[in-house]
Amino acid sequence: MITLGIEGTAHTVGIGIVNDEGDILANVSSSYVPKEGIHPREAANHHADTVSSLISTALKEANITKEDIDVVAFSQGPGLGPCLRTAATAARSLSLRLNVPLVGVNHCIAHLEIGKVRTEAVDPVLLYASGGNTQVIAFSRGRYRVFGETLDIGLGNMLDKFGRENGMSFPAGPVIEQKAKKGKILVDLPYSVKGMDLAFSGIMTAALNSDAELNDLCYSIQETTFAMLVEVTERALAHTRKDEVLLGGGVTRNKRLQEMGEIMAEERGSSFYVPDGELCIDNGTMIAWTGWVMYQAGMSIKVKDSGIKQGYRTDEVDVLW
Ligand code: AMP
Ligand code: MG
């Protein structure tokens, strides 16, 4: 059985094709590069312009034809309305044309499911840090629960905004990672963990207003925010009594974050998993795989019920699989 997944929650439109074993037959994507922060309508236009040729490229890469597709899945939310609508429209029309089931997937859960199938993780605590989202998620009593999350912006957006103000290209996360390696002095920045939740905009303001040297600031932003992420993840592990840490989201490609997460996991006797970088960032493969898992549990939907959910919560989904 073959599932095609369409991701389109924010700046990236991605097509993934997987089989029922979780093998990746194709994973292609195209990203809208914002000049001044993501403009939802412009991003959606980019997705609309590229999605059908991406589907053709993915089919070619998978060496199959449209008729081989058994299930179509799409990112139903959370995300930017115009982007979500574009991906959903493409998925609906493909599903109608091929007369195959349609599955709407929660984007955050997809980050966790792809990590589970592509690593040895079985029941992990997911540290999910991306452009728009930052959450610590784990399974409990029938749902994926959010144990802690950002109260304002996603960490990636914060890094990108700080980078933009300092003349870095988009996405700034990888540039900050390189500059941080040259930083030597830990600048005092607010450490904003509130209960199990996090906040990043105050740190960004403090960093933007600081006269410290840029490499030192990059280093300090990383050390401070990553320590916050790891602290909340560790407390979620303690609370749930789980012993696996899984990373997901573009920010978790950062080697320093991986190192800090791994040290924490090791000290607790927990296992630590990071999927391939291409599967950490937004991708169609995670949507395809989660769609397949949900389809098997009877969770396909009719087109008339396939409306997008901009504020789709991780814990809204009954995990029937
Ligand atoms: P996503 O939203 O999951 O596709 O991830 C995109 C975000 O990840 C952007 O905000 C990037 O700046 C950030 N990002 C990508 N690579 C890195 C890195 N090596 N270190 C920190 N952030 C990164
Ligand atoms: Mg994401």
Question: Describe it for me?
Answer:
The protein has helices at residues 40-62, 81-98, 107-118, 155-165, 173-182, 201-209, 214-240, 255-267, 277-280, 284-296; strands spanning 2-7, 12-19, 24-31, 71-77, 102-106, 125-129, 134-140, 143-149, 193-194, 197-198, 244-248, 271-273. With 321 residues, it is α/β, with parallel strands linked by helices. It folds into two domains: 2-111 and 282-316, ATPase, nucleotide binding domain (Nucleotidyltransferase, domain 5), CATH 3.30.420.40; 123-274, ATPase, nucleotide binding domain (Nucleotidyltransferase, domain 5), CATH 3.30.420. Helix 1 (40-62) packs parallel to helix 2 (81-98). The longest helix is centred in the C-terminal third of the chain and has 27 residues, at 214-240. The model has no long low-confidence stretch (mean pLDDT 97). The structure holds adenosine monophosphate (AMP) and magnesium ion (MG). Adenosine monophosphate (AMP) is lined by residues 12, 130-131, 156, 159-160, 171-174, 177, 249-251, 253-254, 281-282.
Question: What's the alpha carbon Rg, rounded to whole Å?
Answer: 19 Å
> What is the CATH architecture assignment of the largest domain?
2-Layer Sandwich
Task: Output the CATH topology of the largest domain.
Answer: Nucleotidyltransferase, domain 5
CATH C-level label of the largest domain = Alpha Beta
Kindly report how far apart the N and C termini lie: 17 Å
Spans of 5+ residues with little confidence (pLDDT < 50)?
none
Mean pLDDT figure: 97
Count of discrete structural domains: 2
